[in-house]
Design brief:
- By secondary structure, this protein is α+β, with helices and mostly antiparallel strands.
- It has four helices and 15 strands.
- The protein has helices at residues 62-65, 129-135, 161-173, 185-190, and strands at residues 2-3, 17-18, 36-41, 44-51, 59-61, 81-82, 88-89, 93-103, 106-117, 125-127, 138-140, 145-150, 153-158, 180-183, 198-201.
- The strands form four sheets. Strands 3-4-10-5-9-8 form a six-stranded mixed barrel. Strands 11-12-13 form a three-stranded antiparallel sheet, with no helix packed on it. Strands 1-2 form a two-stranded antiparallel sheet.
């Protein structure tokens, strides 16, 4: 299948976004797995970000946020979030953070607003419709990947199928995720001397 995005967010002409059989290489079929991707948020590598078209907000779960090297304060919130079953929770606060997605040379940099939610989750956070809109992203569950235009062409960000299944099973068990910080040396080298990126792992 193919999608035509006429312009990049910077106003330049964009090449068509297409999904082919090659994009499904390595994906185990049949499947109906969630799309779980890696994003660098405030120089922290978060490997378990759930891509959710049904979410009207971007979310970072408190257990992951507390492990990130962030020196900015949260803006308090009083309005609750409502789930599918109408259960509600008041977020700890909201914060705008730098987000990097993709792999060199096809990398997108954006500032995105996240709500920090103190709720047990197997995921580090959720990339909702605001993130997809900011990236001009197109996703394919069949291919388990998302694509978006950059100044250097179309970026392809593949989902972690095994990680997605692990998160699903952990969610069923209501397991408390363990969060540790490790240095992502490969990403640090790719950043060519910029401050090190820390990976938040489950």
């Amino acid at each position: 299948s193919s999608y035509v995005v006429s312009q990049t967010p910077q106003g330049r002409t964009a090449e068509p976004i297409t999904f082919t059989a090659e994009d499904a290489a390595g994906v185990h079929f049949p499947h109906c797995d969630a799309l779980v991707v890696r994003a660098v948020i405030a120089r922290n590598g978060l490997k378990r970000m759930l891509v959710d078209h049904g979410s009207s907000v971007n979310i970072l779960f408190g257990s992951s946020f507390d492990k990130m090297a962030i020196d900015h304060e949260l803006t308090p919130m009083a309005s609750p979030l409502y789930g599918f079953t109408r259960d509600s929770i008041v977020p700890r606060g909201k914060i705008t953070l730098a987000v990097e997605m993709g792999a060199p040379p096809q990398v997108a940099h954006r500032f995105m607003e996240f709500l920090v939610v103190d709720r047990r989750s197997a995921y580090h956070g959720v990339l909702g419709r605001p993130a997809l809109k900011d990236l001009w992203a197109v996703t394919s569950i069949h291919h388990l990947c998302m694509k978006f235009p950059t100044d250097r062409g179309v970026a392809t960000l593949r989902g972690d199928q095994m990680g997605s299944r692990e998160c699903y099973l952990n969610s069923l068990r209501k397991a408390e995720p363990r969060v540790n910080m490790v240095l992502d040396a490969e990403m640090a080298e790719a950043l060519e001397g910029s401050p090190a990126v820390l990976d938040v792992e489950m």
